[in-house]
Specification:
Blueprint (H helix, E strand, L loop, with lengths): L6 E5 L4 H12 L3 E5 L3 H13 L4 E4 L6 H15 L4 E4 L14 H29 L2 E6 L3 H4 L5 H21 L4 E8 L12 H9 L9 H12 L10 E4 L6
Parallel strand pairs: 1-2, 1-4, 2-3, 4-5, 5-6, 6-7
Helix pairs in contact: 1-2, 1-8, 3-4, 4-6
């Protein structure tokens, strides 16, 4: 129960890594806000959190919309009075090469991943600064470090999240707000499960642990970074990739 009675916002918590993070937070004793654009999957995660004995709120929010994000944060503070932890996980992919990527896809991917992460941090930061306490964990990707073929928008957005993390960590450190970023590798999410088997195998073959990861394995690291056990970590980029691209 490392997070007993903490109040947490997890974006993109309707499925995959986000859902696993929300459930792990609840298992560790936190009450969870599920910020999920899809109300159906968001409400399902809410029920699962409540089944673990914790309180939950669900908001069908588009994190790329600053007004929606600020409205959500204001409502959470009105209901619960505090926000201790923010996990920026929301994202999606529209793969394309440099010469074929469409402007609208570039804008959409960076809007959710990078702008969405910025919007959420900017919305909760004043509250955390005032309290002199906060944990922010952002989700990037190993492709944000190495780049990925046919993943121009996604890789650029994830690289931006790493830079944003380090800049915010420098600014908020004096207020005892820890800001870190997790870089997953190949994780068996619903999206990844749709990949062609030959591409999955290509990545697994160059992964030292010779397997794909589970979303729960990412959630475990996020829970650690969100806890006081990681109180002297900030600006860190932690890979959860089985050694892929190390």
């Amino acid at each position: 129960m490392r997070l007993k009675d903490k109040r947490v916002i997890v974006t993109g918590a309707g499925q995959g890594i986000g859902r696993s993070i929300a459930l792990k937070m609840a298992q560790e004793g936190a009450d969870v806000v599920i910020a999920e654009m899809n109300p159906n999957t968001g409400n399902q995660t809410k029920k699962e959190v409540e089944a673990l004995g914790r309180k939950a709120l669900s908001f069908p929010v588009d994190v790329a919309d600053q007004k929606q994000v600020r409205g959500m944060v204001e409502e959470v503070l009105e209901i619960w009075g505090k926000i201790d932890i923010l996990v920026n996980n929301a994202g999606f992919d529209r793969g394309a090469t440099l010469l074929k990527v469409k402007e609208e896809d570039w804008d959409a991917v960076l809007g959710v991943h990078l702008k969405g992460t910025f919007n959420c941090i900017q919305a909760v930061a004043p509250h955390m600064v005032e309290n002199g306490y906060g944990k922010i964990v952002n989700i990037s990707s190993v492709w944000g470090k190495s780049g990925g073929v046919s993943e121009i928008s996604y890789s650029a957005a994830k690289a931006g999240i790493i830079g944003l993390t380090k800049s915010v960590a420098r600014e908020l450190g004096r207020y005892q707000v820890n800001v870190n970023v997790v870089l997953p590798g190949l994780i068996l999410t619903p999206t990844v499960s749709k990949m062609a088997e030959k591409y999955l195998n290509m990545i697994i073959e160059i992964t030292p642990l010779r397997r794909a990861g589970k979303s729960e394995e990412v959630a475990n690291v996020v829970a650690f970074l969100a806890s006081d056990e990681a109180s002297f970590m900030t600006g860190a980029a932690v890979e959860v990739s089985g050694g892929w691209n190390m």
